[in-house]
Write a structure and sequence with these properties.
five-stranded mixed β-sheet, alpha+beta, 611 residues, four-stranded antiparallel β-sheet, elongated, single chain, 22 helices, 52% helix
Amino acid sequence: MPAEPMLPYHRLTPGSLTGLTRGEGDPDAVALLLSAERSRRLLLLRMLDDATELGPAWDLLSEAQHRAPAVVDELLTYPQTGMWLATALRGLRAAPVPGEPPLWVVLGHFSALAAVAGLRAEIDSTVEVPVRHGRVVLPTLGCAVVPAAEPWTTATVRAEGGRAVIEAAGATVAVPRTPGAAAPGWHPLRRLVVGPAPRQLEVALDDVDPYRTYPQPTEPRPLPEEDVTRWRELLDRAWDVLLREQPGTAEAVRRGVLSLTPTPARERFRPRSVTSGDAFGGIEASEPDDAVQLAVTLVHEFQHTKLGGLLHLTPLLTDDTGAPGELWYAPWRDDPRPLEGLLQGIYAFVGITRFWHTHRESPGAHTAMADFEFALWRIHVSRAIEQVHRHPRLTPLGAALLETLRGRCAEWLAEPVPEEPLALARLCADNHAARWRAHHLRPPASAVDETVRAWLAGAGGPPSSPAAAPDTVPDASARRLDSLAMLVRHDIARRDGDRHPPEDPEKAAAQVTGALAADALLAGGDPAAARSAYLTHLMTDPAPPGAWPGLGQALGTTGWEAPEAARLLSDRPEQVRAVHESLRRATGTPPDPVRLATWLAGGQEPPGPGR
């Protein structure tokens, strides 16, 4: 077993805690978290060895640690090593899954780690390692392509005098001595080095390690060289943005981000990025639209990384014994989230808000977009914090963290933002919250039934039961609740001259997955046309849930029709949706949405008995 310690021990100090609770964290705090991760992985390795007896590979790793402790240290703290450890330990307790690598392949990854440690420590060795669909992965170095008749088989790594070859099925692949060099049958792990010395960022662009994607492993998919060049150029420009605008954050990122896993580009303004608490320092990210988006992604995911590391040292929440299964609104998600997930999101999006707060003052920034993003995210984060900042499960440190972030949001909310982006941000924030309610909240069935009977009987107003507290019932069909914000971003970009999407509402909505044509009209500042379009959507069966709050906002923006209905549809769209759907089923004819909402809000009688 590798001996302790290989890195200096770090304690949680008041200074490091202060930075982390503010959503920041200096390089010393990052060093603390890295040291803790290394210790944690040593413990997990010991657990794995106790359960499986890792054998000669364990002995090779121990010898490498004595000869070259920095080499083993780098391997242990590499993000994918942490992901592999978690996967292997879970695999010991899980049943085999058809099509997934068998347990011996997963456990065999340790032999590949040991082979790399031995090679880099210049220890002569012979190690049997897994072959996955014809590829042999040597973590932090690259992968070899070898003949393979089966999806899972083995190869032999022979190291002598600091050189290594991989032998499998009669083929031999030489591992280049120069890191990052290509060779016949060998795909190197590329490293990107950007920025000026001594503030360079160096990360592995990992397209080969099977544990580079979170939380599920994937097979190696080496990038074409032109894609690597594009990632290098984007990262260089993104790093320049962070160095100029957030040098403190950049220094922490420089110490704590170790690998970047590239995935294909996605829909514009909707990048996908992932981190895992088991893979400290690793980020999986789709190819960004531009350098600013990549800078935001680095900040966003590093926030998750820091909080995940902190949670390995100390809890922020007590055990979930009071209200198991409790779910919350997260303004950056389509689905309801447990408290643990909401806390992670709050911490991450504080970082995003801070980025836009700084970026909007930067020369050359797209000011309208930056103002909109800053105004939007400060609202979202503030609303998320207000839900839970006094939650009884918060530990003293968790309460201090949320109270500190709440104070920071209050400062941001007090800052002036130009009227147009501010109004658009409020519109989009309210729309997302109301769409979430329309999808995931359900009034009690008994209350809906009582209300339907009152409408059909021609009552002058609804019973009190619709106001009963709704239940949270996750709706798997909820997708792309941020469509209005996406449409606003497209429109701002068009006006800034970035690109030229079509102004026709149907074509504009078609550019944004999940958007309705009425959404494009609302985002484009035509609430009267949006009102008509939302009513058309609501006559379909089933009606799209997002059309209910959209109709409320269109009514509220015009300001001259059905103010009671506008408020109810905007604040509690789930009530109108549930009653409308029940009436459609009971009568076969959907009632007029505006008249129903007005009646439910207490402003108008129904059209008559039995209607």
